[in-house]
Each structure stands twice: as structure tokens, then as C-alpha cells.
Amino acid sequence: MENIYLDNAATTKVAPEVFDEMKDYFSLEYANPSSAYKFAGQISAKVEEARAVIAKMIGAKTREIYFTGGGSESDNWAIKGVADALRAKGNHIITTKIEHHAVLHTCEYLEKNGFEVTYIDVDEEGFVKPEVFEAAIRPETILASVMFANNEIGTIEPIAELGRIAHEHGVVFHTDAVQAFGHENIDVNEMNIDLMSASGHKLHGPKGVGFLYVRNGIKITNLIHGGAQERGRRAGTTNAAGIIGLGKAAELAQQNMEANRKYESELRDKLIERVLAEIPYAVLNGPRTQRLSNNANFCFRFIEGESLLILLDMKGICASSGSACTSGSLDPSHVLLAIGRPHEIAHGSLRLTLSAETTEEEINYTVDTLKQIVERLRSMSPLYEDFVKNNK
């Protein structure tokens, strides 16, 4: 069997329709959209079409969408920009212990520059409890940032309720929706979202492009200075091909969202059920429901995740042990530690993330292969041997 790609949380392949939409803007329609002549104006109009598609998709106004270089830039801009703009009002920020490092490291940077950050706990399934969130708010709190859905364990947070609580206390509310945009229905008004980050390559769009939604009236300073692009808020030559591709990917995601969610969640549930039933001492990370439709994350006791990934790769299966952004780290996942997994169990984690192109045959092959690999690795573990002897 050819490569089985089960790492769609890390990135997705560009959809053929998206590539077709983009390709002319590299060599035929190549003008700078900011230029004054007609050739450039036609390209600028296509960029604005993409902006309108995205705005409509999340219930925003077109002028509230700002294109960026991706999710990490959007997170940085949202958090640093609001912190700087509201510094005179307060210096306290709230986030969670399970955020993507684009949020966590940005908050750590702000802590070195006079801000205080509260990193709130989550429960054993990764949920932020509204009462815990509200208890963390102080008079000097200016911003709260809670991810829409976790990139490792798939937990979908109660964003609308958290946003409502933030607004009741006069706190600006940001959500990192990089994993959720294009996969979950999002309405920024109904969900009380003031700022939202998203990235093209998580929904079969191109890499290197994303957007930040900024509710009209929210005070935010610029992250990148230079030219007058993005209505003077984000300098840099407009990535026309990328933005047009992102717009097409968003359009396709909206059209296919319900069908994709139904298909992926049914396949995901079969995967979870087989793994938990057929592999001893396996645990699911995150909830059975209220999780991303394509996400399954497990811990296998007495297993090192790195060895697991290498052996899966040798069998043609692409998977991960957590966020692709930390794949070079030997430390256990901060997300798994935050939901209470001990270090020795967190080290044996595996994230499998599907797409609408994943087949049942691929899932069955993956589970069959995984069973063999886990059995092989455990047969070499003296800890597992002692555990079995002591539990007979």
C-alpha cells in the first residue's frame, strides 16, 4: 500500500481546484495588486473576492478580515497588538495551558515585557471550565486567548460561553481557530469572538497564508510595519496567489463541511473503537464527542512515541506524536501533561488525523499495523514484562 497520510492536523494537501485557481497568478496575472494600473486592479479584485468569501463564512464584515502569513503570525499579531494597544488599561492576559506554542511563546515574550499571564488549567478531556476561566479574570485583565479546538487532542472548547464571560467583564476575546476554520461552523458574532486566527494549509489551501479577523472597534497596534497594504494594518507585498487559493479553499470547505464531518467522524469512531478494543493499555486522549471530526489521539503504555512513529513510517503510514511545530522536541506533549497524563505515558502518544480522502481500508491497515508494532515494542520492554507478570 502506498503512503497513508494520517497527519492532516500538521498540514493538508492542496486541493486540485485550489491549485487550478492559483496557478495563473504566478506567471500570467503576476502584477502587484497594490499598483495603480488596470492589470493590477484585476488581481486586487480577486483578492477582495477571497476576503468576502471568508468574511461571509464566519459572519464577519469584509473589512474585518486581514490577510497574514499564516496562523502563527495571526496569533502573534492578535496578542501583541491588543496588549500594546491596551497597555494603559491593564497588563493581565489569560490563556490556557494547552494552547499552540504560537500563543504560549507569545505570552511568554509579553511576560518579559511587563505583562502578567495566567495559564489556566483544563480538565482531563482538555476542556476549559467556564467557572475557572471567569475566576481568573481580574480588574486589570485586558485580553483572553482560548483556542477553538486543540491541535493535538481535538477538544472543541465552549468558545461562545467563554467569549460571553469575557465580554461581561470588558475583556477582549481572541481564539486561535487554525484547526477549526473550514472544519467547524463558526459565527464570530454568535460566539462573542473579537479576534480570530486561521491558516490556509489546514483546509487544503496553500501554506504561508492565513488571516486575522479583527472586530470593528477593537484596538490593536500593527505587528509588521512598512507599506500601506491591508488598509495600512499589515505591511508587505500582497500574496495574491496564496490569498486567492485560501479563498477557494474556504469556499470548498464551506460547501463540503457537513458531508466531510459526517464521513470523517464515522471513520474516526471506527478507528478509536478498534484501537481501544484491540490494543491493551491504550487510552484515548480528549473526549469521545465534542472533538474535531478527523482527530484521534492515543497513549500506549510502555511505548516510546518516537519508536512508534519510525516503525509506522517504515510501513508507509504518516502520523505524529503531537504538534508538527514541536516534532524536534524530546519532551512529552505539554497538552497531554496538562490533561493529567504522567510523563511515562505521555511519551507514548500517537496522533492520527484524517481527511475526506482517507479510506476505511487505510484505517484498517493502520490499526492492523499498529497492533503489530505495539506488540513488537512491548516485547522488548522489561517494564512491560514486569507489569504483565505482576498483574497475572
Task: Report on this structure.
The chain has helices at 16-27, 38-58, 71-85, 101-111, 130-135, 159-168, 229-232, 240-278, 305-314, 334-338, 343-346, 360-379, 382-390; strands at 4-5, 65-68, 92-96, 116-120, 141-145, 172-176, 195-199, 210-214, 282-284, 295-300, 317-318, 349-353. The chain is an alpha/beta fold. The longest helix has 39 residues, at 240-278. The strands form 3 sheets. It has a 7-stranded mixed beta sheet, with helices on both faces. It has a 3-stranded antiparallel beta sheet with strand order 9-10-12. A two-stranded parallel ribbon has the order 1-11. Helix 1 runs antiparallel to helix 8, helix 2 runs parallel beside helix 8 (240-278) and helix 9 crosses helix 12.
Topology summary:
Blueprint: E1 4-5, H1 16-27, H2 38-58, E2 65-68, H3 71-85, E3 92-96, H4 101-111, E4 116-120, H5 130-135, E5 141-145, H6 159-168, E6 172-176, E7 195-199, E8 210-214, H7 229-232, H8 240-278, E9 282-284, E10 295-300, H9 305-314, E11 317-318, H10 334-338, H11 343-346, E12 349-353, H12 360-379, H13 382-390
Parallel strand pairs: 1-11, 3-4, 3-5, 5-6, 6-7
Antiparallel strand pairs: 2-8, 7-8, 9-10, 10-12
Helix pairs in contact: 1-8, 2-8, 3-4, 8-12, 9-12
